[in-house]
Amino acid sequence: MFRSRFTVIALLAWRGLKQHAFSSFVAVFTISMAGGLFLGTWKIKEETQKAFTNSSGGFNGVLGARGSKLQLILNAIFHMEASPGNLPWEQYELIRDNRGVKEAYPIAVGDNYHGYRLVGTLPDLFQQHEWKAGRKYEVKGGGRIFSENAKEALVGNFAARKLGFSIGSKFHPYHGLDFDETKRHEETYVVVGILEPTGTPSDKVIWVPIKGIQHMEDHDPAAADSVSAVLLVLRTAAGFQLDMKYNKQGNQATLAWPVAATLASFFDRLSWFEDILALVAFFVALVGSLIIFATLRTVMNEKKREYAILRCLGASRLVVTCVVLAQSLFLSFSGLAGSFLAYGGIGFTAARLIREQTGVVMDPLSLVSPGPKNPNDTFWTTVEPFLPLLTLVLGIFLIGFVSGLLPALQAYRSSLSENLSPKS
């Protein structure tokens, strides 16, 4: 009995939606966009922050000219901003020899090749440094690291693919961080190696000897003995001491430390943008609920007589009411399924753009990222990573239920004699 009643409800609900296919499609599409935007707002921001924090290349500090810590990090580690200025070579040597500094690598910037930055540094970076715990840079078979005094280049994997470089390729650098074909340097560099992919900003850089950048044609001779920044791996207690020395007491340089905290502060300042997108998603969802409401009202008005006949054949008020609610919930949960598809499109597009612009690789399909298990975890800390996803499912269910409630009540209260009476 229950199965046959359920079959009747499902069949009638489906027939009603098919007869208003366009309105049904618009309702599902609108809710899909709202859900996709909500998921994208939450997850892309979270994944981007996690990806940036994990893509610092194994460095926890940057020393550079006096200025913004964030600008230093974006320039030296993520190769995005312009350098705030130069440091004398002596400043590099001074911090390199500090007992609290485990590793220090100078870099120099100022040139590009078709928009991909040339970054000058020492070969030691690729021989000694671990860009990830237990992982050093690896050069693809047949290649090698550049020589310190030669016009040679070691190219990041992403840049090599985009530029069509292979071992033996030759190129002329261009002056500046942005490509301008009128600013070509006469020096010719040869590619001697291509890095294995790391999923960090290093993948989109053309690495060359630091002396090559310092002494490049048309560069300021005064900058020949200076560096753009120093990439640092600091020992545990050294950060506080060096922060006091450079940021609190000194006025010649800025120490951006710790890198992760500076990036977290930056993303926190973007929370207003996340709130705006969430508000937009809410209003889009509201429009979707109104479309569902209008669609169901139209179906209800057109099928009054059909529902009245069903009741004469033995269908209860509850069955007719459930048909209307079933239509509403079907539209809503179709929108929920569409939300994940919309999020997939938004996520893949965002991931591709972020990869191309920053070299940072993010996982757009990771909808839930629970942290490692902790015996001290409470119920709330266990559920919290799932909260936005649960909010989406519950929110769309409520949209469907509330949107269908009034038409369903109308169906429940409808007069049998009035709906069966012939219309003039």
Task: Explain what this protein looks like in three dimensions.
Helices cover 53% and strands 14% of the residues. It has 424 residues and is of the alpha+beta class. The chain folds into two domains: 2-53 and 270-420, no CATH class; 61-257, no CATH class. The strands form three sheets. Strands 1, 3, 4, 7, 8, 9, 10, 11, 13 and 14 form a ten-stranded mixed beta sheet that branches. α2 runs antiparallel to α10 (271-302), α2 (21-54) runs parallel beside α12 and α2 packs antiparallel against α14. The longest helix has 42 residues, at 317-358.
Chain-wise SSE layout:
Blueprint: H1 2-18, H2 21-54, E1 61-65, H3 69-76, E2 87-88, H4 89-96, E3 101-113, E4 116-121, H5 124-128, E5 130-132, E6 135-136, E7 152-155, H6 157-163, E8 170-171, E9 174-175, E10 189-194, E11 206-209, H7 210-214, E12 226-227, E13 229-234, H8 238-249, E14 253-256, H9 259-268, H10 271-302, H11 304-312, H12 317-358, H13 379-383, H14 387-413, H15 416-420
Parallel strand pairs: 4-11, 7-10
Antiparallel strand pairs: 1-13, 1-14, 2-12, 3-4, 3-9, 3-13, 5-6, 7-11, 8-10
